[in-house]
Amino acid sequence: MAERTAYHWRKLEDERVECTLCPHRCKVKPGATGICRVRANREGQLLTLNYGEVASVALDPVEKKPLFHFYPGTSIYSVGVRGCNFDCGFCQNWSLAHGQPPSTFVPPQRLVALAEEARAEGNIGIAYTYSEPTVWYEYVLDTARLAHRAGLKNVMVTNGFIESEPLQELLPYLDAMNIDLKSFREEYYRRTCHGRLSPVMATIAAAQAATHVEVTTLLVTGLNDSEQEVEELAAWLASVNPDIVLHLSRYFPAYRFTLPPTPVDTIRRAREVARRHLRYVYVGNVVGMDDDTRCAGCGQVLVQRDGYFVRLPGVKAGTCSNCGTPVPFVM
Predict the structure, then answer these.
(1) What number of other Cβ atoms are within 10 A of residue 212's Cβ?
(2) How many domains does the chain have?
(3) Are 206 and 167 in contact (CB under 8 A)?
(4) For residue 304, how far is the Cα from the chain centroid?
(5) Residue 9 structural domain
(6) pLDDT band for position 135 (50/70/90)?
């Protein structure tokens, strides 16, 4: 277990400490941990317990994050860690987020070196993903700084539940984020995720002003999949930036949830509703549904997607090959 002094916290009375990394603001007694289970009070000092402990690693298609408008068709070296500051009943990666997976210590310099070696396989950078990278903050920040200097791209896939100060410290080194917007209802966040909506909204607004942002919403059967909620969510995103990409993902039973999978017709209608406000809405976990990207100017297919097999038949020198409209991608 790699322990390091945490970056964002303050001392309280009686050797207690307050973690100021995320909006939970856990007040931690000596010998205890915060909600995330990986930040602990040791004799009045807040330590991170998972520094450099890589529990999952793979060279993934960038579309798997999912990022559809960020270097489409490329790969990214993806790493994950145990721990999470939410407790979503439907967690798709619960064995990492809430279990005790085996891990290997990989110092930041070594991770950057591995990512550079993977350039020969089409790698563009490092993605901090799979569970919640916010609770891996010290390692993510240290590694992202080194990766940035090496010319690698940094991607963070996150629930967005982070305080403004640590977010602003990290943003200069991030090239893209996929942020979960789990619902547009505070009640859902409290009951289903043990978090809050408003800090996530603040993260999305702040991040999109500084880097490339795409948003994912998992539509859970009967809980957050109403057309009214989807419309409110999409309208708010459009008020931030109508070009923000929204991924509507189909839920399947996992972790503590046994509700049936989201009906495909629900996903299809949700996409139609969201497209009233947003230019680019895609679906996830639905086989055979069209997820191509089309030119806003003439409608030509720019990017063709068949699962994670990606082609760019309509892109030429950063523009639509048919009408010359600039493509909506970072590439």
Answers:
(1) 21
(2) 3
(3) yes
(4) 23
(5) 4-48
(6) very high
